[in-house]
């Protein structure tokens, strides 16, 4: 399909979403989205996504105990914790520091914490993935990041911070939706949805090829797999999953 087709269909979608564009122009949408809409949406979406990816996540996090430090502690840092959808997969007794750029997830996060008391919760930091200055260098055994790299301002900047806070031999775990194959209808659909989707869903970018950023980062080992998650009628079906070692 031609670029003109993409632009035309983008315009049609923008027309349908005109009230949100108007609220954004007036400076109303972003604060409402961050405080009310996105926390509510993310909690509901996380429940659906977790059901679709439970087996993959169980397999992904199975070897987390292998990265326990010589002291016997396993310190985890989660970037973009959101509502705490990953807590159930963490090994008993591990210590978790939660970070998120949006401080408005407390209700869902509290519910998840109360359900997962096998984990020790250390801190909650309001911080962007590109700026984790409150976390000392080389201080954590593993960093976890799921469905977050799509909306950070800089994927490379976030990976640089991941490498800084990880101790040598520590691991970075990821599960992210990514761009579809450029010759596919899925990618065509992603291009159409991109501007409106990014506005409505708090900066979420549909066409990032995050596997390339991971391949170019200075990890000593990278285990990465492309998978498709069954999320019909959404433009976020292609995913990557895996872990990388510092």
From TrEMBL:
This is Methyltransferase-like protein 7A. It comes from the Eukaryota. Pfam families: Methyltransf_11. Residues 77-174 form the Methyltransferase type domain. One of its GO terms (molecular function) is S-adenosylmethionine-dependent methyltransferase activity. CDD domains: AdoMet_MTases. Keywords: Membrane, Methyltransferase, Transferase, Transmembrane, Transmembrane helix. One of its GO terms (biological process) is methylation. InterPro entries: Methyltransf_11, SAM-dependent_MTases_sf, Thiol_S-MT. The chain crosses the membrane at residues 7-29.
